[in-house]
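Following the same procedure, sequence and fold were stored together, as reproduced here.

>
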Amino acid sequence: MLVAEGPPPGFYAPDPYAVTWLWVGIAGFAAIALWYGWVWWSTREKPVVVPPRITPDRLSRLRSDYTRQIEVVVARVEAGEITARRGHQQLSVLVRHFVQEVSGIRAPTMTLTDLHASGGRLTPVSAVVAQLYPGEFAPAEGTTLLGAAAQATAVVARWT
C-alpha cells in the first residue's frame, strides 16, 4: 500500500506571519505607553520649592548689597553714564531679584499685573514697579528716578 506523504492535493497551510510584525506591534504598544507616561509626567502638579529660611546675617548682607547697588544706579544716572530709562529698568531688576533672593518668590518673571494680583506681601514691590513703569516704558524719558529709588530702598530695608 502506498502512503501519501504531505498534505492532500488542494490543501495549503497558512503562511506564518513574519517576525517583523511582532516587533512592530510591540514597538507600537511601547510608544503608546511612553506617550501616556510623558503626558502624565509633564502635566502633573510640580512640587512647590520652599526656599530655606534666610539667616538674619545673610539678610542684612543682602540688604546692604542691594541698597549699595541702588545707590550706584542713581549715581550713574545723575552722572549721565546711563539714561534715566536704563536706570528705571535696573532698579526694577534689583528690587525683583532682591525679593526672589530673600523669599524665593519669582518676582523677576512677574508682570506688574501679576504683582498686583498677588497682593498682600508683594504690595510694596508692586508699588515700586508701578512707579518705575512710566520711566521704563514711556515714549519719552522725563520722569525722575529719585522717588522710585527711595521707595526701592525702603522695600529693601523693610522686606522680610
In short: DSSP finds six helices and no strands in the chain. Helices lie at 19-43, 56-79, 84-103, 112-118, 123-137, 146-158. Residues 19-43 form the longest helix (25 residues).
